C-alpha cells in the first residue's frame, strides 16, 4: 500500500532539518554557520507552531467520517446476509404513538425550578401551631419562666449548630462560682450543679472576658477541659461566649460537638448575637418582675387597710398574714412567731411549708438564748443567714428537728419599743434575700406590729370590762361569776329558778341577700328585744357570738318556758332593717331548771342539750329539759 500525499509532504518537510544540520557542522565560514543556525531555529519553531495549531483544531472539531457515494446497487453486506425463502423477519414496534415533548408533559421530564409545592403531612398545621402557641408555664416564678425561654433558645441552637450539648451558666463574681442553669444535650451524663472557678476552658472565658474556641480536643484531655459531664463523651470541638449584663460578665453560653472543626469564627459572631438577645430578655424580665412585684406588694399592703376588715381574733390576723406575706416575698417556708402575754413566751403560731421537707410544728416555744429567732427578738433587728449550712445555731429551739438548708430570714415586729412577734422566711436557695428586700419587708411589716399591738390592747381592755362591747350585756366571765352567786343564794332560800340559752338561728342567705355582713345589726336588734323582756330579777350575758344566757331568779321553769315562747314569736314577727331591706330572723331557746342546784357546768350542759333539741327541729323552737 503506497503512502498518501499527506505523509509524503511531512517527510519532505523533515528532510530539510538534516540538510541544515549538515551545513552547520561542515561549513567553516562563521557567517554561514550563524545564518544556518537562525534558519534552523525559525524552521523548527514554525513546525512546532503548525503542529500545536492542528492539534487544538483536532480537539475542538469532531471527526466526521467520509461518506461513500450512494449507488443503486446493494452493498456487499446486504448481499452477504441474504435469507432463504420463508426465513425473513420484520421489526414491529409495540408503541404506535410516538412521544413528543409538549408544554403539558414537559414538567414530568424537567422539574420546575420556580415555586414548587412541597409535601406536607396531614397534621402539619397542628404541629406548627402547637410549637408557635406554646404558653409560658403558669403559677411559677419569674426565674422559672426565664428558664423555660432559655431552654427553648438552647434547643434551637443545638439543632441549628448540630451540637452535642448547648448549655448556659450563671457566673457569681462574689463567690467565683459557675452555676449550670439550663442545658439541652444528647447525653444523659450531665446534671445541673455548681462549679468553682478553675483554670479550664470555662475559667479562661471568665478571666479573659472573651470567647474561646477549641477545634480538636484530645480524648485524654477532655475530662480536664470540659467539666460539666459526669463521664467522657468524645467531645472534639467547643465554643463558648460570655454574656454581659450592665457591662458586667453575668453568664456563659457554650456549645460542644463530637466532630472536629465543628465551629469557627462565624459561629462565635452568631453566638454573640444570641447572648445579646438573652441579655435583653433578662432586662425585660427584670423590669416586668420589678413592676409586677411592686404592684403585688402595694396591693397586699392596701388590702390590710380595707374599710371592712376587722381583726377580732387571732384567726383573723393569721388569715391576713397568709394573704399578705405571699405577695411581699418569695419563700418556701413561712413561720409566724407571736408573743403570748399570759404565758409571757414567744411561740410558733402559724407555719406554711410548701416543701415536703421536715420542719418545726406549731406551739413550739422559742428559746431566746442561742437561737436565730431569739437573737432577732433580743436585738430587735432582722437576722439573715445566707447559708444555713455554715452555722450550727438552731432557728427556734435546740430540740427542733429540721431537714432544711438554704437562706433564713427573721423580721421582728416592733411597735412602741415592744416586740409582738417575728416573721420568719426560709428559702431552699442560698443567698436568696438581698439587703434591699430585708429593708423593704422591715418597713412594710410595721403595719403588722401595729395590728398586733391594737389586738393585744383590745383584748386587755376587754378582760377588764364586765360587759360585752357590742351588746352591752355581761360577758362570759362576768355572767358565770354572777350566776354562781345567785345559784348559791337561790338554794339557801329554797327558791326555784331556770336558765334559758337563746341562740340566733343561722341566716339561709346571709351572703347573697345583703350587701355586706348583716349580723352586727341583727345581733344588736335581737339583744335589745331580749333586754326589753327582762325584769330586775333577771341576769343576762353573752356566752358566744350567737348565744345569750338569761337566768331567772325565783321563777318556775314552766313560766320561763312561756317567756321563751313569747320571745321567740316576737323576734320572728318583727322585721329588722338591714341596709335597704327588711327581713325577719328567728331564735332557738333551750330551758333548764336550776332549782336546788349550784353546779354551773351541770346547768349549762342541761341547757345546751335542750337548745340542741330545738336546733334539731330546724330552729325557731323552744325546748325544755
Automatic annotation (TrEMBL):
Keyword Zinc: no
Annotated region described as Disordered, given as residue ranges: 60-85
Stretches assigned to the GGDEF domain: 495-625
UniProt keyword list: Membrane, Transmembrane, Transmembrane helix
Comp. bias regions, Acidic residues: 61-70
Entry GO MF terms: cyclic-guanylate-specific phosphodiesterase activity
Transmembrane segments: 12-27, 33-50
CDD domains recorded: GGDEF
Protein name according to UniProt: Diguanylate cyclase
